[in-house]
Amino acid sequence: MDLIQKNLVELNDQIKKHHLDGEISYKSDHSNMIRAGRSQISLNVTETRELYSIELYKNKKMIMGSAINKNEAMTMIDDLSKKIDHMPEIPFLTPIKPLCGTNKKNDRFDPNLENIDSQIMVDIYKKADELFIKKDKLNHISGSFSSGSYSYGVINTKTNEPLYHKGSDFNGEIVVQINSHDKKEIQKLMVGETMNDLDLNLQELENLYEYTTTTPYKKLSEGKYDVIFTAEAMGELCAYFLWLSSGESKEYGQSYLNEQRKVGDQLFGKNFTIADAPSTHPLFRRPFGKNGFKHTDRHLLKNGVLLDLTYADKMTCDRFNKKMNSCCQDDYNLMVEGGTGPSDQSAMIKSCKTPTIFINFLHYLNFTNTTKAEITGTSRFGTFLIENGKVTHNLEKVRLLDNFFNLFSNIEWLSSKAVNISATSSYGFRSPYALNVPKFVKIKNVSLS
Question: Per the confidence metrics, is the pTM higher than 0.85?
Fold first, then answer.
């Protein structure tokens, strides 16, 4: 048994000694990061952290605390056990249940990412700098690259054996600032689970550079447009959409679902399908969620039909009398089903016989009205007009202001090839989250300004 698993068992036994119910969750990470700015390395740092989170239950009362190591966690349990009687009752609180997740060895853990040679990270930006400085000495390279390991575990007093998972990951971006062309920026993202996943092919980034520097600028007028989103842009939309489609969002009045729009209705296009697929997803397959729930394959949306509401938070389930049926969304292995559309950048451009807007990334996404599934965001890192199979103009940032019903009911085609894109939060502990999304998705009649 791993040391962390032994620690969790001992902490669990300590709760039992106080004749209480409780749950202990654990998370840790080891991170190596460099940051580049203005073609110079500005930060090179390594950091290791861990955290034990403790929940104690007594009838209708609950108390929580956290500690940064096992010894402090032991002391915290003793301290919380003395205070729980003074906590107010929570009328809807229900007893904890045994964890239903299962342990499974992670065969894709890569120790080379946990203890990466920083020169490897530096060379990523050196290669990009050499390439784009040759094109224009005023170009600047920036970005950050982070690699390392993460782990999480959970046990409760209804479960004897802890659940524990350890993984490795990297994520990063290369940003080219084109100072001779109004400081426009283009970007390439990188995400993976092993060193073998690292793709340093910069050809598509070079193509974006050429489109930016060789085509005239044009201001886009407000209206409806056919739009091609990259996997990165489409993945962002899907992540926001699924949050809005969760059981928690519905119970708290933040969902588009109501008496007229229900689970099981045909709400979106028949060519739009999303699954949580831990058995087949290329990256970060987790056997259980951080809430201890078993992680299994399931369709969330199939042929435009939302199949079920997911509930992952115990307190929400208790409050609304729902049964937990899912791990947390940031544990998902999301895959958006592909189609028959082009997957090569050049072929994608040639396929556009009518005026089409190409959006490389979406930034500052937010909801304007959750009950109407309205969302807004701005394009970034390359926005172009394609006409008659050619990129004819580069555009300043455009604003998306539309709703998911229109967007996902007007998908013209999805690429046949899917790629992995990162939706990992840059805040808190390492918790890699990747979506597998068709490389390009063409959507008709999108509202832009």
Answer: yes
